[in-house]
Amino acid sequence: MLHLGFIPLLAVLTAAGFGAAFPQHTLRRGCSLSKYKFLVPHEMKAMQKMKQHFEDIMLLSDRKCNARLFHRKWNPAELSVPDRMMLVEAELDLVTAMLGLPADPSFTETRQQPLAFLSQAREDLRGCMATGTPSHQPSGKLRHWLQKLQTAKKTETTGCLEASAIIHIFQVLDDLRCTAFQEQCI
């Protein structure tokens, strides 16, 4: 009889131990960003093609840009999961807004697949934001970067913001990947 009472107690203690082993600020239950852990080759090719096309267009223009939004002295892997989610959401907001701007017809066609993919990633991320942290206050690092982003949106030209977002598209994708893993990425 004592043996039967011990098994449920062992199960409860084991479950409690596992609960402490996993991060408390995780994605909403039943939600998965796992499809962003490893991007399929055709999505990567579409991103690369878009970036290359944009860089070719930039060579023909005279865009001067001082925005250094993606030059950070810290690595997003240093942030908590809620901070990484906020960072990636802000990055995806910027990138999708810039890709949604009117553009040269040839570039409009090139950016359609990446824009659709990134828009879906942003919506998936928003749907997965942890319900337990809606009032999450960003860390000092992230808060500073978010302020820098807001300042850039007010002071930089649209062309500058567009260039910065597209040139650093793979950094945004890497930040999304690390957020999908919910663990430290380097």
Automatic annotation (TrEMBL):
Localization of this protein: Secreted
GO cellular component annotations of the record: extracellular space
Any single GO BP term: defense response to virus
Secretion signal, residue range per the UniProt entry: 1-21
GO molecular function, one term: cytokine activity
Keywords from the named record: Antiviral defense, Cytokine, Secreted, Signal
Domain of life of the source: Eukaryota
InterPro entries per the UniProt record, alphabetical: IFN-lambda_sf, INF_lambda
PANTHER family attached to this UniProt entry: INTERFERON LAMBDA-2-RELATED (PTHR31943:SF1), INTERLEUKIN-28 AND 29 (PTHR31943)
Family from the record: Belongs to the lambda interferon family.
Protein name: IFNL3 protein
Organism: Uria aalge (Common mure)
